[in-house]
Amino acid sequence: MSLEHAREVLESEAKAIRSLIPRLNGSFERAVLQILECRGQVVVTGMGKAGIIGQKVSATFASTGTPSIFLHPAEAYHGDLGRVRKDDVVLALSNSGETEELLRLMPLLKRIATPVIAVTSRAASSLGELSDIVLEMGRIEEACPLGLAPSASTTALLALGDALALTVLQSRGFSKEQFAFYHPAGDLGRKLQKVRDVMRSGDRHPIVPEETSVAEAIVLITQARAGAISIVGPGGRLSGIFTDGDLRRLVSRTPNRLSDPIREVMTRNPKTIAPERLATEALSVLRERKIDEIPVVNDRGEPIGMLDIQDLLDVDLA
Q1: 153-181 pLDDT tens trace
Q2: Helices (H), 21-151
Q3: Which structural domain range is residue 235 located in?
Q4: Is residue 182 situated within a structural domain?
């Protein structure tokens, strides 16, 4: 019996979302355009369960390139109305369209001259009639067996809010890289890091000319606590790499070569990577070639950094 009812709840909520699809029309397109042209922020407001949904919708806008805050309608009467500016857009959520706190807020928003987009079940509701644009959801039967607890209606509010935010995202041409900027601590943010974000550079990336002795190169590697050193030719372009592994193999075979020029023992024409490549791509290259370091070069072939597999593992790209 419990599983049967749970399936009915899910079906009711899925039905509520499906019912929104044929209702998308020119009003939705105008709402998207209004937000895209907004020079301020999207101020999302709602009371009760709709307010909780509004907080999530506001967070989705903010994390996808559209500045947004949530305004509690009751708190608006106690000073928070000062958060709203003429250049903003208000997104008001109310299934019934008769939420008292929202209706009391509407004349104040009109005084500020802030446009209002309402998401409600009826365009003819009080909220709908006071708004500039109305996204009408239609009558939605709640999944609650009593027909009272907001359930299917809040699911529909959330889905329509997501549709609005993500359509704005697409219209802006919002990229994965921009998404990662707003989610630097998240899993996706880490996976979208660029090579330049994690490579070793400056004092941590020793670079020497081909004439440098092996012994001098070893000193620089040690001082930088690096696993490899980049070697450049007369034009400053990368000509080779010398790693800890190369040193161990060299010493085990011919330990008396420490005074030789590094060009005689370096690995010539090593695999390189550009700074704008994804760090995850670099990790795949390192694993595929069974190497621990890869030089990072600019478009002129000059070394600007070194990527060490340990650095990639430290930021949990595995």
Answers
A1: 999 999 999 999 999 999 888 776 666 66
A2: 26-36, 49-63, 73-76, 100-112, 126-130
A3: 195-314
A4: no
